[in-house]
Amino acid sequence: MEHSEIEDLARLTNSNALTNFVPTTHHDTYPFITPTGTELASKSILITGASRGLGRDTAIRCTKAGCARIALAARSSLEGVVREIEETAREAGITPPQILPLQVDVTSDESVRAAAGAVEEAFGGRLDILVNNAGYLVEFNKPVHEIDPAEWWKAWEVNVKGTFLCCHYFIPLLLKAYTRIVINMSSLAANCLTYGASAYQASRFANCRLSEFIARDYESQNLICITLHPGTVKTDMADNFPEYLQFLLIDKANLSADTVVWLCSQRREWLNGRFVVGNWDMEELEGKQSEIVERDLFKYRITI
Fold it and tell me: Which residue numbers delimit the Ketoreductase domain (predicted)?
């Protein structure tokens, strides 16, 4: 396929400019964000979609950051990631975290409500950090009139309803802690108009606006909500990525996981309600803090 054809199908809009907001971008972790063992000391965290992919790596890197309590939520078995967390702590010579594995369907009100009750009981009634990582990608190859309606809506059920339900049931626990951070995984795809990608890209756009509303609704209670593009990582979910865009899947899961650790290692109010690109060099991003706040960057608005 010719480069011009790929550009026309992908319609990246200004995604390249967004990615290049800072001079340096990364595809793997780097020293400034690499956990040293203390970043999340005494913190508790819940990660959805934790059995594999980005969720699994986030749990392991949070362990390396010294996280005290880790709740793992997924529909599939969590035995493997539990073992890896224990092995990671042992190899790093640190106290293993309290691990709470939970079989959760994020699209189910009853399931998420039960998970919140289990976390409340196990973690002393509060939670420091919520990472809404569970996601679903519909194959990018059909326009609206051809796609299976059930598949199209499943993207919204997982990506939007799932994120909403977790925020709905876990925010009360966050408000009982000091840290009060929500990380909602989205995608740079929220900024694109790729042929046949209406389910995924529109639902990821909705994630961004939901994060803005959460930041707005709880601004008086000092809750921080950040939307994160984790990079383009070749996870199982990426199998539905179109073949002509597979060359973009060059980022490592540790980049996203360590970025989550960095974002949660302290309260960064200047990023509240904003869209963060995981490929950015975070040290350089810190240098643009004043510009970001003054121009109110990385929120979705209509240009007039």
Answer: 43-240
CB distance 267 to 180 below 8 Å? yes
CATH of domain 3-295: 3.40.50.720
Average pLDDT, integer, range 2-20: 81
Which residues contact residue 105 at a Cβ distance below 8 angstroms, ignoring those fewer than 6 apart? 75, 111, 112
Tokens of 4: 């011009």
Please give the Cα distance from 300 to 150 (Å, whole number).
Answer: 28
Structure tokens belonging to residue 262 = 């960095």
Q: pLDDT category, 125, cuts 50, 70, 90? A: very high
- Please report the pLDDT score of residue 140 as a whole number: 84
Sheet containing strand 181-185, edge to edge, reads 98-103, 69-74, 44-48, 129-132, 181-185, 224-229, 275-277
Residues 33/111, Cβ–Cβ less than 8 Å: no
- 3-state SS track over the chain: CCHHHHHHHHCCCCHHHHHCCCCCECCCCCCCCCCCCCCCECCEEEEECCCCHHHHHHHHHHHHCCECEEEEEECCCCHHHHHHHHHHHHHHCCCCCEEEEEECCCCCHHHHHHHHHHHHHHCCCCCCEEEECCCCCCCCCCCCCCCCHHHHHHHHHHHHHHHHHHHHHHHHHHCCCCCCEEEEECCHHHHCCCCCCHHHHHHHHHHHHHHHHHHHHCHHHCCEEEEEECCCECCHHHHHCCHHHHHHCCECHHHHHHHHHHHHCCCCHHHCCCEEECCECHHHHHCCHHHHHHHCCCCCCCCC
- State the pTM of this model: 0.96
